[in-house]
């Protein structure tokens, strides 16, 4: 039962353009959402998060949007840079708890 | 300021042997999580522990897998009688005590890649 879904296994974007990574969830109890970035042979690193009481959170080039009615969130990276090439995981937790459910990831390629 | 340390980075076992994966959390972190990543898949939650306590093991296979986080020393994920299907990358993460400011952001180690021959 995939509670967090990232339907695009990969995405290719030109340097300088916007990257949009999407994530859908099914559990309406999720109240906190996170994005992690992972390079090969390394562990995931936290990128940005959003609480369910907000619909947008911005940190530099990274913005996360949350649409609760659609159970959908997206990560926008602008402008995209070659160093952003990595796998991006969407994750969610419920009721302020510690258990975090991860999506399958989207591999982003940023072409120079 | 050391991050989450996992060892070994690579572990090769023959079918039927035992695998022990170690994880030292970041300093000051009292919560440890274990995840498994199969090839081309995402991270699957296995278990969440605090010192000397298993809080949530809903993602652990019912047999052969166990985890501990003793009062002293690293957290250990133990897989007995390994089978080829156990081959995967195992990631450990840690987090500080839950606060409203840093809500469950987890810090990951580099992982242990287990290969079962």
Structure description:
- The complex is a heterodimer of chains A (112) and B (117).
- Chain A is mainly β and 112 residues long.
- Chain A is 0% helix and 57% strand.
- Chain A has strands at 4-5, 10-14, 19-25, 30-38, 45-51, 56-59, 62-67, 72-77, 86-94, 100-102, 106-111.
- In chain A, the strands form 2 sheets. In chain A, strands 2, 4, 5, 9, 10 and 11 form a 6-stranded mixed β-sheet that branches.
- The mean pLDDT of chain A is 94.
- Chain B has 117 residues and is mainly beta.
- Chain B is 0% helix and 48% strand.
- Chain B contains no helices and 11 strands.
- Chain B has strands at 5-7, 10-13, 19-24, 31-37, 43-50, 53-56, 65-68, 75-79, 88-95, 107-108, 112-116.
- In chain B, the strands form 2 sheets. In chain B, strands 2, 4, 5, 6, 9, 10 and 11 form a 7-stranded mixed β-sheet that branches. In chain B, strands 1-3-8-7 form a 4-stranded antiparallel β-sheet, with no helix packed on it.
- Chain B is globular.
- The chains are: A mainly beta (112), B mainly beta (117).
- At the A-B interface, β4, β5 and β10 of A face β4, β5, β9 and β10 of B.
In short:
By secondary structure, chain A is an all-beta fold. Helix content of chain A is about 0%, strand content about 55%.
List its traits.
A: 112 residues, mainly beta, 0% helix, globular, B: 117 residues, 4-stranded antiparallel beta sheet, 11 strands
Summarize the SSE layout with pairings:
The complex is a heterodimer of chains A (112) and B (117).
Chain A: E1 4-5, E2 10-14, E3 19-25, E4 30-38, E5 45-51, E6 56-59, E7 62-67, E8 72-77, E9 86-94, E10 100-102, E11 106-111
Chain B: E1 5-7, E2 10-13, E3 19-24, E4 31-37, E5 43-50, E6 53-56, E7 65-68, E8 75-79, E9 88-95, E10 107-108, E11 112-116
Parallel strand pairs in B: 2-11
Antiparallel strand pairs in B: 1-3, 3-8, 4-5, 4-9, 5-6, 7-8, 9-10, 9-11
């Amino acid at each position: 039962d995939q509670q967090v879904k990232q339907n695009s296994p990969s995405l290719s974007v030109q340097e300088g353009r916007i990257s949009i990574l999407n994530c859908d969830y099914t559990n309406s109890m999720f109240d906190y959402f996170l994005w992690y970035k992972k390079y090969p042979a390394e562990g995931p690193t936290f990128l940005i998060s959003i609480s369910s009481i907000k619909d947008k959170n911005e940190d530099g080039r990274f913005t996360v949007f949350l649409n609760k009615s659609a159970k959908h969130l997206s990560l926008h990276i602008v402008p995209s840079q070659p160093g952003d090439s990595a796998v991006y995981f969407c994750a969610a937790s419920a009721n302020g708890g510690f258990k975090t459910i991860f999506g399958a990831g989207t591999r982003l390629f940023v072409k120079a | 300021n050391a991050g989450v340390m996992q060892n070994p980075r690579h572990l090769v076992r023959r079918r039927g042997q035992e695998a022990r994966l170690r994880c030292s959390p970041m300093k000051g972190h009292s919560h440890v999580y274990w995840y498994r990543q199969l090839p081309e898949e995402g991270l699957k939650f296995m278990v969440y522990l605090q010192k000397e306590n298993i809080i949530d093991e809903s993602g652990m296979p019912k047999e052969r897998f166990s985890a501990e986080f003793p009062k002293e020393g690293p957290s250990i994920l133990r897989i007995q009688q390994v089978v080829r299907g156990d081959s995967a990358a195992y990631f450990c993460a840690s987090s500080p005590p839950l606060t409203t400011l840093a809500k469950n952001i987890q810090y990951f180690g580099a992982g242990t890649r287990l290969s079962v021959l």
